[in-house]
Structures are given as structure tokens and as C-alpha cells.
Amino acid sequence: xxxxxxxxxxxxxxxxxxxxxxKAFKEAGHTVTTIExxxxxxxxxxxxxxxxTIDESIDSVKAEDFDALLIPGGFSPDxxxxxxxxxxxxxxxxxxxxPVFAICHGPQLLITAKALEGRHAxxxxxxxxxxxxxxxxxxxxxxxxCGDQLVTSRTPDDLxxxxxxxxxxxx
Length: 171
What we know:
By secondary structure, this protein is α/β, with parallel strands linked by helices. The chain is built from 6 helices and 11 strands. It has a 7-stranded mixed beta sheet with strand order 5-2-1-6-7-11-10, with helices on both faces. A two-stranded antiparallel ribbon has the order 3-4. A two-stranded parallel ribbon has the order 8-9. A hairpin with a 3-residue loop joins strand 10 and strand 11. The radius of gyration is 14 Å and the shape is globular.
């Protein structure tokens, strides 16, 4: 059954951490809606490999309209977590126990949403201490699945495992 996946993203996203999961989700028959501050805006990846036209503004969406959330890494999550609307949107997925897929710096949004306490997770090494301060048990593994809800990975090298486990949760 096809699932609706929200993807919160802005400029300086890590290109492959956006493009590879989105490609895997679409190939499996799911839909992905990109969400940023402004609908129709074009955001660019930090490597210059992707340009993303935003489908919806954060003001026009609700977590209950989606089945899962993708948070790609790069600088994008750090920019988005400064905006309370994205923090609230992210927290709503965690509170509703919907699948959340966060890679690299993606867990920064979960930290700001205070949604990692008591969770097992991973992320880019530079946010390890932040994740621990947020109450997570940090595991240095290519992919960590916690509570049949949260899928986290460290870097683009982990994308095959990240995509595999994310797709399993969407079944």
C-alpha cells in the first residue's frame, strides 16, 4: 500500500541523503512531498548535485496528512530547527508513533523537538554528544531502528542500510 511521506528540506541539504531515499521510496510506490518555508521555491544541495522544487509550505501541511517523515542531513536540519513550525511538525510524527527517517545531521531536528529521550539512535559523529545530551543512547552503527518507528544513519555511506530499513517500516 502506497504511503505519503513528508520530507522537510531546505538549502544546503546533503544531496544524496535527499535524492537516494526519495528515489527508493518512489520506486517502491510511495509519494514524497517536499516541505519548506515557501511552496514553489527551488532549494539546492550543498554538493550542487540536486535542485528541489518545494511542493508545500510548512504553513499548509499537517503531520496527520502523512504516514512518515524523512529528514535528510547536511546543513538543512540545522537551518530548519531554528523555525518552531518545523520542530512542532517533526515532534507530531514522533508523538503519533509514525515512522521517522533521519540521516546524518537529520537528528538535529529531533533533538530540538525533544523527541530522542530514551531512544537508541545514530547520526553524524559531530552531533553524538548533542544526541546524548538529548537523552538518546548513541550507537555508532550504519543504521539503528528504534521502536519500529525511528530509523537513523550516520553518513551517505550508510544509505543502502538506511533505505532498506526505512522501506521495511513502510510495509
